[in-house]
Amino acid sequence: MPCVCFRKCDVVNRGFSGYNTRWAKVILPRLMGTSAAAQSTVAVTIFFGANDSALKDVNPQQHVPLEEYAANLTSMVHYLKSIDITEDRIILITPPPLQESAWEKECLAKGDKLNRRNATTGEYAQACVRVARDCGTGVLDLWTLMQKDEVREHEVGFGTTKHIILHRGANSSAALSLQQHLQV
Question: Which CATH class is domain 2-182?
Answer without folding.
Answer: alpha beta
